[in-house]
């Protein structure tokens, strides 16, 4: 039975691909536009359905059709500390704190590695691939290996403040390649003349870094930190086996999902996390837009031509 | 992310080796503790003996591998997982390439391009567990897909109850979760193509289709390759999607690793994970090999 579905999917997918392969861009464009719109529905449709279902009344179900739409019942249910909901608010608080620390560490490490890679050094190639390796290591493996390491050194998972160390560590490793690539793209279009000028005027390398370099690249550092924050906030598989009793929001969500009877509060919890994530992206876009405008104005005024516009696109860039 | 030329931006001022060390050291130590050491530990523990609660360090034996290969369960699951990863990778190319192509070459203004790219990329920042859960109302017995099939299209009389908890549902969800890892590298490859080569081909009278097949597509292959590596490796190690959407009836190597871990049989979990790493490494090596051949031809 399922093979029929695969067959249907395959036939549908061949259309845009062959349009791209055989037609001139003018003629293939409408086909590709249609496919793009379907793709957007595919990416956002499930989340949107979930969003709609989270606003049901007390008799709401897990599937369509939605009942008594327009109620915040399942959101208030999140705050009622019923048996399953115990620890949801706690989880949100913990997640936010952990993410904040991970953001700071990711920003600092990305900055220092970005500075390091401005000049060639021995072992640089290996270090570069090690950073990218964390992008390609499945989360479960990282979690498993780290839990072995903790067992080996006799570390009690999830106990006290120390219990946060492996969680923060592994989440920062996951965010590091993203932050690092942001810094690389910043330094790739970075103008070093200002630094040279400062140096010629007799500034020490520390002063140069603090007074000249840092102000020029701080949006990049901020972007790296934001990657750290959002990725840590949503991280699940890497934390799964090492968290012990510390349930961050995604872990709590997984526990609730694995429980026997699912109710729409799962959806409202999902909506809450989506809102937090998208708010953060909004803040980032706003900050880069404002600094971008400021930079543009500054360039207009003094014509210095120094630019650093680390955008989301540069962030995701491979090189 | 190819050669070293792209790696090192020589924009920096001269500096002492000590300064370099200061910049390099924190990140390196972090990676050693939280990335390299865990991966080494997996291989080591797979070679150590099992104790009731964990493992006995440095007591070498191959028993863990004996245990996972005792029945055919592990090998069958491994085969299924490899098949699933290849299928998802293939589907991601078919979906991701036209999307990347549309974004990179059909959208004219750069502002609009960036805006659309952010829209495409935004789901990446939504918690992975949430994106899996979002499939519940779509694929369920009374989900959106069944609703369309029964009520709107009338293709089937009865809702298909097997839609959820099926390999098809898992494949669909995995494609949605990982397709962005394919779109992004292809997009950047296509957006930075050598326009002169395309112009030249056009001037020499190549048809638009021919330009695509013989210039654009071959030049975009590095992006496709990077995307394939990402998707293949990440889907191989996939655990939560299979667990939540498969509902315990469908296994992957990831869920088996987790099962061994909860028994607890840590060396067996490590052995399964080691096999996983081995398959991934071989897969990536084959992909890279393939790309070398392409370069020569």
Summarize, please.
The complex is a heterodimer of chains A (319) and B (297). Chain A has 319 residues and is an all-alpha fold.
Task: Give an account of the 3D structure.
The complex is a heterodimer of chains A (319) and B (297). Chain A is mainly α and 319 residues long. Helix content of chain A is 72%, strand content 0%. Helix content of chain B is 72%, strand content 3%. Chain B has 297 residues and is mainly α. Chain B has a single domain (64-296), classed as MetI-like fold. Chains A and B meet through helix 1, helix 2, helix 4, helix 5 and helix 6 of A and helix 1, helix 2, helix 4, helix 5 and helix 6 of B.
Q: How many DSSP-defined strands of chain B?
A: 2
**Oligomeric state of the chains?**
heterodimer
Name the CATH superfamily assignment of chain B: MetI-like
Helix-strand category of chain B:
mainly alpha
Mean pLDDT over the residues of chain B? 86
Work out the strand percent of chain A.
Answer: under 5%
How large is the radius of gyration of chain B?
23 Å
Q: What keyword list fits this structure?
A:
heterodimer, A: 319 residues, MetI-like fold, 2 domains, globular, B: mainly alpha, two-stranded antiparallel sheet, 2 strands, 3% strand, disordered N terminus
Give the helices and strands, then pairings:
The complex is a heterodimer of chains A (319) and B (297).
Chain A: H1 2-22, H2 25-53, H3 73-79, H4 88-116, H5 124-136, H6 139-152, H7 164-188, H8 193-200, H9 205-234, H10 249-258, H11 265-302, H12 312-316
Chain B: H1 4-7, H2 17-46, E1 48-50, E2 55-60, H3 63-68, H4 73-106, H5 110-121, H6 128-133, H7 136-139, H8 144-152, H9 167-178, H10 180-191, H11 195-203, H12 208-236, H13 240-246, H14 253-262, H15 266-296
Antiparallel strand pairs in B: 1-2
Helix pairs in contact in B: 2-15, 4-9, 4-10, 4-12, 9-13, 10-12, 11-12, 12-15, 14-15
């Amino acid at each position: 039975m399922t093979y029929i579905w695969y067959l249907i999917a395959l036939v549908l997918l061949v259309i845009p691909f062959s349009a791209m392969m055989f037609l001139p861009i003018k003629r293939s464009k409408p086909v590709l536009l249609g496919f793009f719109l379907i793709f957007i529905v595919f990416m956002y449709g499930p989340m949107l359905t979930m969003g709609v279902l989270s606003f049901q009344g007390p008799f709401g179900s897990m599937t369509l059709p939605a009942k008594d739409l327009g109620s915040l019942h399942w959101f208030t249910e999140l705050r009622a500390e019923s048996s399953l909901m115990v620890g949801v608010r706690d989880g949100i608080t913990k997640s936010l704190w952990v993410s904040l620390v991970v953001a700071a560490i990711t920003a600092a490490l990305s900055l220092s590695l970005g500075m390091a890679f401005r000049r060639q050094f021995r072992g640089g190639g290996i270090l570069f691939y090690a950073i990218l390796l964390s992008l390609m290591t499945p989360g479960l493996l990282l979690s498993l290996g780290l839990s072995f390491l903790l067992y080996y050194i006799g570390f009690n998972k999830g106990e006290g403040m120390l219990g946060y160390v492996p969680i923060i560590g592994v989440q920062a490793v996951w965010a590091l390649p993203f932050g690092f690539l942001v810094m690389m793209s910043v330094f790739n279009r970075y103008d070093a003349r200002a630094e040279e000028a400062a140096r010629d005027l007799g500034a020490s390398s520390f002063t140069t870094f603090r007074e000249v370099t840092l102000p020029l690249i701080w949006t990049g550092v901020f972007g790296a930190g934001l990657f750290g924050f959002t990725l840590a906030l949503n991280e699940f598989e890497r934390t799964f086996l090492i968290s012990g009793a510390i349930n961050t929001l995604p872990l709590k969500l997984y526990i609730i999902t694995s429980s026997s009877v699912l109710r729409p509060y799962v959806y409202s919890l999902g909506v809450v996390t989506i809102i937090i994530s998208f708010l953060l992206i909004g803040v980032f876009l706003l900050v880069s837009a404002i600094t971008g405008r400021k930079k543009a104005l500054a360039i207009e005024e003094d014509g210095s031509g120094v630019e650093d516009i680390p955008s989301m696109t540069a962030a995701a860039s491979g090189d | 992310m190819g050669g070293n030329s792209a790696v090192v931006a020589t924009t920096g001022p001269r500096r002492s080796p000590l300064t370099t060390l200061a910049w390099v050291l924190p990140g390196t130590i972090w990676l050693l503790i939280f990335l390299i050491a865990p991966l080494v530990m997996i291989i080591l523990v797979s070679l150590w003996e099992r104790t009731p609660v964990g493992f006995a360090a440095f007591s070498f034996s191959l028993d863990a591998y004996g245990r996972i290969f005792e029945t055919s369960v592990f090998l069958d699951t491994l085969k299924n997982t490899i098949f699933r990863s290849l299928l998802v990778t293939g589907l991601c190319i078919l979906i991701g390439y036209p999307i990347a192509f549309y974004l990179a070459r059909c959208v004219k203004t750069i502002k609009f391009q960036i805006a659309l790219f952010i829209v495409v990329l935004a789901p990446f920042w939504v918690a992975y567990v949430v994106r899996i859960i979002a499939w519940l109302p779509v694929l369920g017995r009374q989900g959106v897909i069944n609703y369309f099939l029964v009520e709107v299209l009338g293709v089937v009389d009865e809702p298909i109850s097997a839609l959820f908890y099926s390999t098809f549902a898992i494949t669909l969800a995995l494609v949605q979760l990982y397709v962005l890892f394919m779109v992004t590298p292809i997009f950047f490859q296509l957006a930075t193509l050598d326009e002169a080569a395309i112009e030249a081909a056009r001037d020499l009278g190549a048809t638009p289709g021919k330009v695509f097949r013989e210039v654009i597509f071959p030049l975009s292959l590095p992006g496709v390759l990077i995307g394939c590596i990402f998707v293949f490796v990440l889907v191989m190690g996939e655990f939560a999607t299979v667990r939540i959407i498969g509902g315990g009836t469908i296994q992957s190597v990831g869920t088996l690793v987790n099962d061994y871990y909860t028994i607890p049989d840590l060396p067996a979990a490590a052995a399964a994970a080691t096999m996983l790493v081995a398959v991934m490494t071989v897969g990536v090596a084959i992909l890279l090999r393939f790309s070398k051949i392409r370069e020569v031809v």
